[in-house]
């Protein structure tokens, strides 16, 4: 089934070339089915890339999905045009009286700051509290996952000695959980971050379940026991070249970054990297949409 997105969204052309099933509003409105309404709070600086990455994964489902994007009101992104935000994005004020079947809160390049020092932290806390009554299930990615673990469960992040960047093997701990149904017992996922969260603190928390982790990268998949929140500390939505682009960007800035681990073939940056996590990413998003959004959301919100 298709994903319904605005006709002129820049991601459309690239996704259509990949044979992603897309639909426009006029066709979607004639279908006598209940689509899922998904809200995406996009905190990433390169918003167009993140839009494309997330829409690609949301598309691989038998469910029709409508998507709304929102951006922060208390912080203005410097890497996207105001015209793009005005055309394709709303704010929390615009949507706070609505209900959504699912929501995604992305990562953000603010992880070395204390949560309280982030410009939009109070706004994000307000949104996270709002989701308790207005959203069926929330998927949190990278810094968004750390923010959820801190804001909802009191688990703080800690700074790593060096940036964690690369593709790492992970092992499932609770393979019977619906979210990971069909995933391999061991699978790959990319990480790109300066901070981590304690797997021990997650395991000891009575409201959380650690679903998958890595010896090198730590916790990856965490779910609340009420199944309301899914936290992914890595970037399974990344495209094959995303880590390479980040590596080149950091090098250009003169930052002391290491070559992403287990990423470039033969550790040679001149050889194009392969996407070795795509199938797991598609399956994880499909499971989330099906089991925790579609199967749980009310047909009619009060």
Give an account of the 3D structure.
The chain has 302 residues and is α/β, with parallel strands linked by helices. The chain has a single domain, classed as Rossmann fold, CATH 3.40.50. Helix content is 31%, strand content 25%. Helix 1 (11-17) crosses helix 3 (47-58). The chain is globular and about 55 Å long. The model has no long low-confidence stretch (mean pLDDT 92).
- Can you tell me the overall shape? globular
Number of distinct helices: 10
Which regions contain 5 or more consecutive residues with pLDDT less than 50?
none
CATH architecture: 3-Layer(aba) Sandwich
Report the count of strand segments.
12
The CATH superfamily is identified as Class I glutamine amidotransferase (GATase) domain
Q: What oligomeric state best describes the polypeptide chains here?
A: single chain
Straight-line distance between termini: 27 Å
- The SSE order reads EHEHEHEHEHEHEHEEHEEEHH
Task: State the CATH topology.
Answer: Rossmann fold
The residue-averaged pLDDT reads 92
For the biggest sheet, the summary is: 12 strands, mixed
Structural class: alpha/beta
Beta-strand content bin: 25-35%
Under the CATH scheme, which class?
A: Alpha Beta
Domain count, please report it. 1
Computed Rg: 18 Å
Helical proportion, percent range: 25-40%
Site (Important for acyl-CoA specificity): 111
Site (Important for substrate specificity): 192
Main location: cytoplasm
Subcellular location: Cytoplasm
């Amino acid at each position: 089934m298709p994903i319904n997105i605005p006709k002129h969204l820049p991601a459309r052309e690239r996704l259509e070339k990949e044979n992603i099933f897309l639909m426009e509003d006029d066709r979607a409105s004639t279908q006598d089915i209940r689509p899922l309404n998904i809200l995406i709070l996009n905190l990433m600086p390169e918003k167009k890339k993140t839009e494309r990455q997330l829409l690609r994964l949301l598309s691989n489902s038998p469910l029709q999905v409508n998507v709304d994007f929102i951006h922060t009101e208390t912080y203005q992104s410097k890497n996207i045009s105001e015209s793009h935000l005005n055309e394709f994005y709303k704010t929390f004020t615009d949507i706070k009286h609505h209900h959504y079947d699912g929501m995604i809160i992305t990562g953000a390049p603010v992880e070395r700051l204390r949560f309280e020092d982030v410009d939009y932290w109070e706004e994000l806390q307000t949104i996270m509290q709002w989701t308790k009554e207005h959203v069926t299930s929330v998927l949190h990615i990278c810094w968004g996952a750390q923010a959820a673990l801190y804001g909802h469960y009191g688990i703080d992040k800690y700074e790593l000695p060096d940036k964690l960047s690369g593709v790492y093997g992970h092992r499932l701990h609770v393979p019977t959980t619906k979210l990971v149904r069909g995933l391999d017992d061991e699978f790959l996922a990319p990480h790109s971050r300066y901070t981590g969260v304690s797997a021990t603190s997650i395991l000891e928390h009575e409201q959380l379940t650690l679903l998958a982790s890595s010896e090198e990268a730590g916790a990856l998949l965490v779910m609340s026991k009420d199944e309301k929140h899914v936290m992914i500390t890595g970037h399974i939505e990344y495209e094959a070249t995303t880590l390479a682009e980040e590596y080149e960007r950091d090098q250009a800035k003169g930052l002391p970054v290491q070559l992403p681990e287990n990423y470039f073939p033969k550790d040679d940056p001149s050889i194009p990297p392969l996407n070795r996590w795509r199938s797991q990413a598609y399956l994880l998003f499909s499971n989330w949409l099906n089991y925790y959004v579609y199967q749980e959301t009310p047909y009619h919100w009060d």
